[in-house]
Amino acid sequence: MYLTYAILVRNLTFGIEIIEKDTLVMQRSISKVLVANRGVPAVRIMHTCRDRKIPTTAVYSTPDRLAYHVRMADTAIHIGEAPPIESYLNADKIIEAAIQSNSNAIHPGWGFLAENADFAQKVIDAGLIWIGPKPEVIRLMGDKIRAKEIAKQSNVPTVPGIENVTSAEQIIEWMQKERVAFPIMIKAAAGGGGKGMVKIDSTDQIAAGLAQARSEAKKSFKDDTVLVEKYIEHGRHIEVQIVADEYQHVVHLYDRECTLQRRNQKIIEEAPSTLESDLRQEICVTAARLMRRIGYTSAGTVEFIFEPSTQSFYFLEVNTRLQVEHGITELITGLDIVSIMLDVAEGKPLPIKQFDVVANRSALEVRLNAEDPKTFYPSFGTITHLRAPLGPNVRVIQGAAEGEEIPPYYDSLFMLLMASGTDRADALRVLDRAISGDLRLEGIKTLAPLLLSLIRHPKFIAGDFSTKFIEEHMQELVSGFRERTGEDEMLRVARYVAEISALGPQGWM
């Protein structure tokens, strides 16, 4: 089927604008989706595919053979052993699995190969439908230095910085020339997810910090190119969700607050942010303008750092994939972002226009990672008991089930827990109930105690926080961890009695 549209074509060098009338664009039909991921992201994609009656294929490594996402899919293909390079990062095996399972489309989820332009191009070259932005845009935005240049050309404010840094002397000279004070941040140019980022507080830390950042960048992204930026003290991370089609229709779905982080990785997000409405409108329009300028398609996110003291925001990066926290945007808008991605991949225009999008609720998300809440050390093992929260205004994306092992080879996220309400205070009450009243989990340690302590903190409730909040209040937060209650003890006793009743007297008794 062909659709006729008048399209504004703007090349990526931003030098040419051409209006092409009566352009023919063929709609493609997705018959089966292979999800090139595992755990929570794989399950999330499969939920929407089920809604749309589209069969799915799961891929799995050897330790994931009994994983929840494998059981949820219509077809499952083994692609390798535990190391990601042999399985979830093996592009050729994933494409082979798609062909073998008669899947004609691939969705990468988030993480692993989601922002790998070479993988996206391989999918297209294999005659499959890529559910995501164009490979050339992924490649363009994956280079933080080039992305920052494009933001500047688009009149989007950027953080003061220096690029292609190779020596401590370069950094010192730049700081003196531009009168930049400590702290500063050294960042991997090809980075993401908090990897290859080192904060520097004094001159004597520069050389070691530069070496560390370049080493981490080389290890994680096979590219040791780094840049250095002014570190915004007490900044807040604000991001804008964008969806766009092949016909230059770009729509923002409002903003999200992603400020609360540990080790440069988010653990609590909320939508919309607590920005004033005029500032929110400005930052959302700015994000949409940038994405239109680069010819973006599918779903993506523009990240900014907001400086409360000056009420200024600066461009950080474009995430050319589905974000972990997209679910809270869905809760406040009533939209299914994954479904929109499927529409765009099929060559359809966006099902919405900007004036159709209304954010009339508030939502928060917490990330349940298998980690010690006091040290953030991984806590891998078997989930011996799991009861997911239920009740009004609660949404759960569960990447693992009771009896399943959390392996040490992959990201420790195993559940996303979201809550919504008529306003922020209402959403916080629902989230508190979900974590403290309904969630039951045994066998591994999780961030749940820390998350509960965070959402009960007076400053968080008041919206008074920054990216340094956890670091500055860690001892206070730990002291607020809920101790085991009598109810918890009664549950354990009841379980013990039930086991004895079922098995009879034991020899050790």
Automatic annotation (TrEMBL):
Residues annotated as domain ATP-grasp: 148-346
Domain Biotin carboxylation: 29-475
Short name of one Pfam family: Biotin_carb_C
Organism: Oscillochloris trichoides DG-6
Coiled-coil stretches: none
Single GO term (MF): ATP binding
E.C. code: 6.3.4.14
InterPro entries: ATP-grasp (IPR011761), BC-like_N (IPR005481), Biotin_carboxylase_complex (IPR050856), Biotin_carboxylation_dom (IPR011764), Biotin_COase_C (IPR005482), CPAse_ATP-bd (IPR005479), PreATP-grasp_dom_sf (IPR016185), Rudment_hybrid_motif (IPR011054)
SUPFAM superfamilies (alphabetical): Glutathione synthetase ATP-binding domain-like (SSF56059), PreATP-grasp domain (SSF52440), Rudiment single hybrid motif (SSF51246)
Domain of life: Bacteria
Keywords, ordered alphabetically: ATP-binding, Biotin, Ligase, Nucleotide-binding
Keyword Metal-binding in annotation: no
Full protein name: biotin carboxylase
